[in-house]
Amino acid sequence: MENAKRILIVEDSPTVVEHMKMLLKNSNVKVLNAGSEFGMMQSIESYGKLVDLILMDLTLKTENGMDLIRNLRSNDRYKELPIIIITEHVSKNLILEARELKVRGYLKKPIQKETFLDRIYEVVGNVSIIPRNTDTGSGGQTSEEKKKEEPVKSE
């Protein structure tokens, strides 16, 4: 997996991390995991190179995911680092704040396979792996579900 995309999952639930890893198991992706800001900062530049994507849980046990994103964005080196937020609750305020922080999208828990893979594909591009649902063009979702989980675009 020399040319594998590196995805950092910042999530403190081992069950959720294992679920995401399982969804990515047949992909050309190297998955890293951190459950805290300290772990995130150690992993973010693994192997001397920035990760290609961060999947950030917003409700960590000891930290707030949006605060971690703010901290990252305050450093010029990480201003453009792609981030997708993971949350149980989506609100207009959350989406507005995410846009201000240049978050690339969000995933609503519980994580749905097609939506999860579609979001990653949209952000990191071809990972030569991810099975795409080309029949419906919607990742198996109804148009209403697709609207609800429309990615946050940076402006």
CATH architecture: 3-Layer(aba) Sandwich
Q: What's the count of strands?
A: 5
Q: What percent of residues adopt helix (DSSP H or I)?
A: 25-40%
Average pLDDT: 82
The largest sheet is:
5 strands, parallel
Using the coordinates shown, work out and report the CATH topology.
Rossmann fold
SSE order: EHEHEHEHEHH
Can you give a write-up of this model?
- With 155 residues, this protein is an alpha/beta fold.
- The protein has one domain: Rossmann fold (3-Layer(aba) Sandwich).
- It has helices spanning 14-23, 37-43, 65-73, 92-100, 113-124, 143-148, and strands at residues 5-10, 29-34, 53-57, 83-87, 105-108.
- The longest helix has 12 residues, at 113-124.
Quick tags:
Rossmann fold, 5 strands, 155 residues, 6 helices, globular, 5-stranded parallel sheet, alpha/beta
Write a brief structural summary.
The chain has 155 residues and is α/β, with parallel strands linked by helices.
Task: Describe the protein's topology.
Blueprint: E1 5-10, H1 14-23, E2 29-34, H2 37-43, E3 53-57, H3 65-73, E4 83-87, H4 92-100, E5 105-108, H5 113-124, H6 143-148
Parallel strand pairs: 1-2, 1-3, 3-4, 4-5
